TrEMBL record, chain A:
Its main location: other. This is Radial spoke head protein 9 homolog. The keyword tRNA processing does not apply. GO terms for biological process: axoneme assembly; cilium movement involved in cell motility; motile cilium assembly.
UniProtKB/TrEMBL annotation, chain B:
Pfam families: Radial_spoke. It comes from Allomyces macrogynus (strain ATCC 38327) (Allomyces javanicus var. macrogynus). This is Radial spokehead-like protein. Residues 495-507 have a biased composition (Basic and acidic residues). Residues 359-378, 508-521 have a biased composition (Acidic residues). GO terms for cellular component: radial spoke.
Amino acid sequence: MNGSNLHVDTFGSKGIGLSTEERACLATSLVGLTSSQAFSSADFWGKIATADVSKDYYVAVAYHGDPFAPTIFMCQDALNWVQAPNVTDDEMHAAADLRAAFMGDPAFEFPLPNGAAGTLPEAKRLTAVVQCILRDAHIVPRGAYFRDSLGKLQRNATFAGLRPHDVTRLASYVHLRPAATSDAQLARPDFEDAVDVLDTVEHDQPKGCWVVEKSVMNVVLSSLIWPGYHHATSVADASFASIYVGQGKKNLDAGFMI
Amino acid sequence: MEDVNQAKQYLQQHSDRTGINLYDHLTELLAQVLEKRPRNPADVFENISSQVKRDRFNLESIQSPLGYKKKPEPNPSLGQVNKLMTVFQSVKRSEDGNDDAAGQVPDILELSGLFEWAGVSFGKEETFLLALSIHQLVQETGLQSARFWGKLSARQGAYYVVEAEGAPPVEDDPEKVASDKAAVEPAKPPPMNVPEFEGFPDIKKPVDMSLPKEEGTGVNKYTYFVCTSIGEAWARLPDLLPEHVTAARAIRKYLTGNLSTPIVSYPLFPGTEAHFLRAQIARITAATVVCPLGYYTFDPESADEEHPETNTAIIVNTEYEVLPNDALLSLENWVHQIPHVLPQGRTTWVNPVKPRGEGEDEDADREEGEGGDDDDVSGDATGGGSEREVEPETGPTLLTSITEDADFAGHPAWSVRACSRLQPSKFSPVHLRSNRWPGAHAVYYNGKFACVYVGDGLKDLGGEPMPMPALPPLQVEFKDEPLVELVDPSVKDEKAFEEMLKEKEDDAQPDEEDGDEEPAD
């Protein structure tokens, strides 16, 4: 995520774009956000649509250098960012099961799903949803991150993009999260132990939950589990970007609809 | 010096595993670093080292970065690009520029600027190609007017949809319709060549219980063309039958991107993806295509004298006063432009129970009486044979304000905003978004307005779980009445009984006039 998701044409094939005013506000306010707490980077993560279109949330994610430890910021006007509250694991699971729409009021309380007692305020639901999406759906091209000799995951500064015949294959994209499976060694003939430390997208369940759409300029992968998450990799150069523009609801019925 | 020479000799030892030596490797490595001058060279040192090792086995030059092949591979996008080139070369400009009557297409590039304010944008180049493609479609098919309806996402690709008026009618091929139906019904066995046998009664044709489709009006007023990517040929979607709408309302499936895919679902959908897509387009259009209040008015000339309230012809209001952007922020100033689709699947109601007394025999009447229970408005099922009183279904009339739309999951069905928070309102377009159909947007700016749909074509669940239709109830076993076993009469007994009856008849015959007294068996 290097700011290219702000460009109006990146996700054009999905019909997603930001207005000029939004782009202007985001580009400037994110720079301020980065320097406010000395983050190494702050990226525009996406928008969560609410029941009231004038109160949609803009979400930004900032890092101190560790791609697995994001700090989540939200705002409703693309200018004044507020850090979203932290959530526990239980709250994360609860938020993935909620079916009600976001209301646009950060203090709104949602009753917990599945009959559990208690409520979840909307601000926490937002953090939980963003973290769920980062864990379940956020992908990067294979080779963009590598584990260096000290075992730390780093952004690959010499990443030159995916090859043209690889760019539409699901095995060329990996989840940016601590790897769940350790059998990556058996998976591919061009295995590299520095790069193949993350799970690929190929075996995500249910089968068919990733939609690949190729246009002349880039290839966009969209998730059907979290509808609204898109990842674009350029075919010409090494840039890639992710964005989420959706309602913040997991598609719990994906298996029935595919 | 000795140490240095020894060290150099050591470094030039070839590895027995890979055949490289460290001295050459370091030389190449430093040469690359000095050539490329990356940021933080010490940090990416290992990376460059492994890259050099990888590239060493390339027969081509080593200075190329990973992924670059000197051998020119055919560009995988070439197929797509070739199709796009046909779009560039297809549009012919008319010499005298007379396009007032036929082939009206709104200014798509201008509208795309409006939609970008609403957050819907296809990218300038793609929008331009789309506009060219639509012009090509209008010219080739001879359409009266066309509008870009939207883009539906599918599992492999997407559908661009164009709504057109005045498309030349397609011969409703009964064989084609039958073949569509045969695709979903089990194949009937081929008729056997049996000689005429007078003994059997005539086989009655099954009564077609489906409702008539609306020809050219109502849901089928517009024709829809789809293509899966810009440059592909536009495919025409079939007209909508009412049963497609009722079936589409009950299922929830993603589109696949191929119009002939069968829809595998429960309850069964009588058609392929083309019909499902058409049904969803009709539902979305009826629910979400809106216009500012006062822009259209009912056409007084086409009002039906008997039913003035069911007038569905609207024309542009010549006395329309352009409302300022502020006024469109209140939902009362938006009205529906398309007639509502009734639960029946049509926009005008048709009595599914055919009236009696048309010379049909009793069996057909009884069948119709039993078949007329697909209406969920009237609930009394009084058994076969009687004419059911079916209440006509009604829906909101045309040009009603969207504030009348029922609330959805506890909040209003529509929400509206001024797209620009920072600019004065006369420079800020107004963006209206539907909650019931996420992806339906309408934008208004100083008298110009347009609607578009970008989404997956499915209605929002509204906080409820996906509806799973209940299976029909299990058949109940018969009540446990005591079974009485009868003795089967033997042949002798039967013959004796028949003779006894015959004697009775012979006795009774001289007394009767009309001989229709049947023996009580």
